[in-house]
Design goal:
By secondary structure, the chain is α+β, with helices and mostly antiparallel strands. The chain folds into three domains: 11-57, Uridine Diphospho-n-acetylenolpyruvylglucosamine Reductase, domain 2 (2-Layer Sandwich); 67-177, Uridine Diphospho-n-acetylenolpyruvylglucosamine Reductase, domain 3 (2-Layer Sandwich); 183-288, Enolase-like, domain 1, CATH 3.30.390. The chain contains twelve helices and 14 strands. The N and C termini lie far apart (57 Å). The mean pLDDT is 96. Bound molecules: flavin-adenine dinucleotide (FAD). Flavin-adenine dinucleotide binds next to β2, α2, α6, α7 and β10.
Amino acid sequence: MIFIRRLPQFDYVAPRTLWEASSVLAERKSEAVLMAGGTDLLPKMKKREATPRYLVSLKNVPGLAYIKEDKGALKIGPMATIHDVESSPVIAGKYAILRDTSLVFASAQIRNLATVTGNLCNAAPSADMASPLIALGATLSLSGPQGGRTIPLEKFFTGPFTNSLGEGELVAEIQAPQPQPHTGGVYIKHSIRNAMDHAIVGVAVVLTLDGSDVCKDVRIALGACAPTPVRAAEAEKALKGNKLTKAAIDKAAKAAVSAAQPRSDPEYKREMVQVLTARALNQAWQIAR
Ligand SMILES: Cc1cc2nc3c(=O)[nH]c(=O)nc-3n(C[C@H](O)[C@H](O)[C@H](O)COP(=O)(O)OP(=O)(O)OC[C@H]3O[C@@H](n4cnc5c(N)ncnc54)[C@H](O)[C@@H]3O)c2cc1C
């Protein structure tokens, strides 16, 4: 067996603005691919799963690695890395679910390069940042030759490793609304070697109490158990407006299984969805109190 480890030949394009990057993508069509940290793209190129003629890097576009709060919303720039999430004081407060996720994401070396946006755009069903951001109610600002548009993150994924970006379109920003008071967020990644492995199942819960133990709002997202990350709508419905009890949580966790459509190990994954959803709901409830 021959292992090909060298990168195929390509032209490196280093635009200075997002608009320029988008123009090159639109002009060169399927010959050009955008690169952020390269941790998904470069291994694919080494394996010849991607052989772009033009590699359009965002590295020389200034000011894209920000994480900030603005007008009551979290804003993450397209070059903000997983390490930036891990070390951001903005994230550590109200968006701690994202910090907890960054800590179970790959190794320190990968976290220094890998961007949150790249993780979403690669669209792996197991992408660790996808479920917590869906649970937070995130949206993406896209920009392209036809102008800009906004899309809820849960509608962005179209299948395994595919997304709804059009020709020349790129993700310009991730946004998430500021959580209400009495909100708790939890992401549980079930994997063999913790952070060094992709999730076998990932469950994210963002739960808001009304000041007592009544569930005012809840969003539950599952990773790695369907062709795309998915909301567990039936489970959410079972909890919203109701008093949280162990029985109510167990019932909701059972309902979460209906959102899972695992291709591999279906019985095991369904069982893990139920177990981990109950665990994540219980933890989020304690944080929200
Ligand atoms: C050893 C190793 C361990 C890993 N562990 C994990 C893990 O634990 N959890 C996990 O979820 N992932 C993991 N990954 C996968 C990878 O690191 C992440 O998906 C990473 O976040 C991708 O970001 P990037 O900046 O490197 O993306 P890139 O490789 O640069 O790009 C990925 C894709 O996104 C597109 N893209 C990037 N930015 C934009 C943009 N602004 N607009 C439009 N398209 C864009 C690119 O064109 C490309 O198709 C691991 C990878 C490796 C090599």
